Task: inverse folding
C-alpha cells in the first residue's frame, strides 16, 4: 500500500501494537452504543425487549395457570439471553482476537494497515471516515456511523499519543454525543 522508502511516510506514520483485552472490547462496544446511530438502535432494542419481556412475565404470572406459567418461564429465559448478549459478545470477540495474537496497526496519511499473525487488512481513510475517542481507546468506524465495524486502537499501544490523535483527526471526523 505504501512506499516503504518514502521519507514522508517515516514522518507521518504511527504504529499501535497491542493484544486485545475484554476491557478494551467492553469500552469499545459501550462507546459505539452511546455515540453511533446503529449503537443507539441496538441498545434501544435490548431495553425494549427487557422491559416488554418483564411486563409479559409479570402479566402471565399474575394470570396464573400451568400453560401461562410455562410461557412466563420461556419469556424469562429469552429475556435472560437478551440481557446476557453484550457480555457474551465481549467474551466471544475477546477469545477470537486473542487467537490472532498481537495486533499491529500502522497508520499514515494514506490509510490504515491492521496485521496479525493470521491476516493483513488495509483500509484507505475514505473507508474509515469517523472515529470515537474514549479515555483508553481510539475507535475508527468503517463506512459510516450506521455500521458496527470498527478498528480498535488502545492508547497503551502507542509511544506518541499526540501524533496518533492528530493523524486520526486529520483524516476522520470525530463523533461526539453529549
Result:
Amino acid at each position: 500500500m505504501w512506499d516503504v522508502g518514502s521519507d514522508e511516510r517515516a514522518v507521518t506514520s504511527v504504529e499501535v501494537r497491542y493484544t486485545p483485552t475484554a476491557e478494551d472490547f467492553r469500552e469499545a462496544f459501550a462507546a459505539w452504543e452511546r455515540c453511533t446511530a446503529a449503537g443507539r438502535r441496538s441498545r434501544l432494542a435490548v431495553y425494549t425487549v427487557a422491559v416488554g419481556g418483564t411486563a409479559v412475565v409479570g402479566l402471565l404470572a399474575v394470570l396464573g395457570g400451568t400453560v401461562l406459567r410455562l410461557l412466563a418461564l420461556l419469556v424469562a429465559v429469552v429475556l435472560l439471553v437478551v440481557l446476557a448478549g453484550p457480555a457474551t459478545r465481549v467474551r466471544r470477540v475477546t477469545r477470537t482476537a486473542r487467537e490472532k495474537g498481537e495486533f499491529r496497526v500502522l497508520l499514515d496519511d494514506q490509510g490504515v494497515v491492521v496485521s496479525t499473525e493470521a491476516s493483513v487488512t488495509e483500509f484507505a481513510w475514505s473507508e474509515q471516515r469517523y472515529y470515537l475517542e474514549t479515555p483508553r481507546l481510539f475507535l475508527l468506524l468503517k463506512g459510516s456511523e450506521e455500521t458496527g465495524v470498527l478498528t480498535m486502537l488502545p492508547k497503551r499501544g502507542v509511544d506518541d499519543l499526540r501524533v496518533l490523535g492528530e493523524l486520526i483527526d486529520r483524516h476522520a471526523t470525530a463523533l461526539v454525543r453529549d
